[in-house]
Design goal:
- The chain has about 475 residues and is α+β, with helices and mostly antiparallel strands.
- About 0% of the residues have low confidence.
- The longest helix has 25 residues.
- The strands form six sheets. A five-stranded mixed beta sheet has the order 3-23-22-19-18. Strands 13-5-4-20-21 form a five-stranded mixed beta sheet.
- The chain has 13 helices and 23 strands.
- It starts with 19 loop residues before the first helix and ends with a strand.
- About 30% of the residues lie in helices and about 20% in strands.
- It folds into two domains: about 375 residues, no CATH class; about 60 residues, 2-Layer Sandwich (Dna Ligase, domain 1).
- Helix 3 packs across helix 11.
- InterPro entries: ATP-dep_Glu-Cys_Ligase-2, CP_ATPgrasp_2, UCP005522.
- It comes from Polynucleobacter asymbioticus (strain DSM 18221 / CIP 109841 / QLW-P1DMWA-1) (Polynucleobacter necessarius subsp. asymbioticus).
- This is Circularly permuted ATP-grasp type 2 domain-containing protein.
């Protein structure tokens, strides 16, 4: 059986050139020292409060995400290709969101079936013909990238609603610099610490037209949300207020924040609350997380929401198979980054193939996230496969299937020492006046041997991601 692509070692077991210095350094480190460094990192993360919540977890609601001190390293050339592909993809996705809420050219051209839009739970008819600043709906995008085969990059999925994880990208870098400062003298590594500055610049650039000095806030569901650390972290790093729905109110289709000095107008909201809970007057009436009247203020152009309401239509897994065609349709370009081949279970032939090959495929809920509601065929028992088959047959239109990619591996410090573990990458793309991103992203690692599920909620960890400067 052919081994997956190893980020550090080539097929002959020799270090790839850009890893050579690190590989030599790693061989000099004892397991005892590496274990002590890992414990130090865990202690610091816990002290600082860098934790996430796991819903329904018996081990406690708050955990640190395991941090691995072996970085994932990209050459400048590799990153150049990735960055070009990410910019192209996010540009096309924003064009697509604008189109489905306005002219619907892609539907009229017969590329995306109308029912795939109108019957989608993420489609918001309330956003029809609503203008947003610069026609940008997804100001913040987290695109999940994997490497497979002989080292080719693939887009696994697009996260355009409330993508999380960027705080861990920044904190992982700080931790590596604290634990191993000598390594940063051996390499020229592109910085990522300025991400909050880029984010604030991006948010300000999509302010309502009539505002000169925009007031930006971060809207959180509250401290019990799994990503609350990130919400408070980004607000603090940007120097803006962290607010909950109860801190805001709408008057005359404008949004105001309650302060000790009286009401203060809010112009841009970086919202980390899902569409359904944003406005009890428009969506879920039982929501206590949102702001009554927020949709009307958004539609009137008096407040910018990042990301906009209805953005989820473009990151739904049932829309994912059409992204390469979107790129060609809107940009007239060939996709730089490939999709993973995808079977749409709503199609009879694709469903038949999926049912016949459940033991070989990864099957996902189109609205699923966090590694839930999915089947990894090769890693499942016969009983689990048969149980999943029942759910698939009952609602085939809710699932897609993909071949089980042999995700690339990266050396990782585990209980037995340094061993290969599967990884992916989530770079963060900011779309404002221009499209910007920091060189790198959040590398997630499946800590269980053989596991392909990297999500923190499923026991995954994170690594620092280095992009080497030429």
């Amino acid at each position: 059986m052919k081994l997956p692509y190893d980020e550090m070692l080539d097929a002959a077991g020799k270090s790839r050139p850009h890893y050579q210095i690190f590989h030599n350094w790693l061989k000099e480190q004892s397991d005892t020292l590496m274990g002590l460094k890992r414990a130090e990192a865990d202690l610091i993360f816990r002290r600082v409060g860098i934790t996430f919540a796991v819903y329904g977890d018996d081990l406690g609601s708050e955990r640190t995400i395991p941090f691995d001190q072996v970085p994932r390293i990209f050459t400048a050339k590799e990153w150049e290709q990735l960055e070009a592909g990410l910019r192209q993809r996010v540009k096309a996705l924003n064009r697509f969101i604008y189109d489905v809420y306005h002219e619907e050219e892609i539907i009229k051209a017969g590329i995306v079936p109308a029912e795939q839009i109108y019957n989608n739970a993420q489609y918001r008819p309330e956003m029809r013909n609503v203008s947003v600043p610069r026609d940008i709906y997804a100001q913040i995008a987290g695109i999940d990238i994997v490497r497979a085969g002989e080292g080719e990059f693939y887009v696994l999925e697009d996260n355009l609603r409330v993508p999380s994880g960027v705080s861990y990208m920044v904190e992982d870098r700080k931790m590596m610099m604290r634990l191993f400062p000598d390594l940063f003298q051996k390499y020229r590594i592109a910085p990522v610490e300025h991400y909050p500055d880029l984010l604030l610049e991006c948010l300000k650039s999509v302010k309502p037209d009539d505002v000169k000095k925009p007031n930006v806030v971060v809207l959180t569901p509250g401290m019990y949300n799994s990503a609350y650390f990130e919400h408070s972290y980004l607000a603090q790093q940007m120097g803006v207020e962290l607010v909950e729905g109860k801190d805001l109110f709408v008057k005359n289709e404008q949004v105001f924040m309650r302060t000790t000095q009286g009401p203060e107008r809010v112009d841009v909201i970086y919202r980390r609350v899902d569409d359904d809970f944003l406005d009890p007057l428009a969506f879920r009436s039982d929501s206590t997380l949102g702001v009554a009247g927020l949709l009307s203020a958004h539609r009137a152009g008096n407040v910018t929401l990042a990301n906009a309401i209805g953005t989820g239509i473009a990151d739904d897994k049932s829309i994912y198979p059409y992204v390469p065609e979107m790129i060609e349709f809107y940009l007239g370009e060939k996709p730089i980054l490939n999709n993973v081949p995808t079977f749409q279970c709503r199609k009879p032939d694709d469903l038949a193939y999926t049912l016949a090959n459940l033991d070989k495929l990864v099957v996902k809920l189109t609205h699923g996230a966090g590694g839930y509601g999915m089947l990894v065929g090769p890693a499942s028992t016969k009983a689990e496969i048969e149980e999943f088959r029942v759910h698939l047959l009952a609602n085939p239109d809710k699932y897609i299937a993909q071949p089980t990619l042999a995700l690339s591996t990266c050396p990782t410090f585990v209980e037995s020492g340094v061993a290969p573990r599967h990884i992916d990458l989530r770079p963060f793309v900011l779309s404002g006046k221009t499209i910007k991103m920091v060189p790198g992203g959040l590398t997630r690692v499946a800590l269980k041997e053989g596991s392909l599920v990297v999500n923190s909620s499923q026991g995954g960890g994170t690594k620092d991601t280095w992009v080497l400067e030429e």
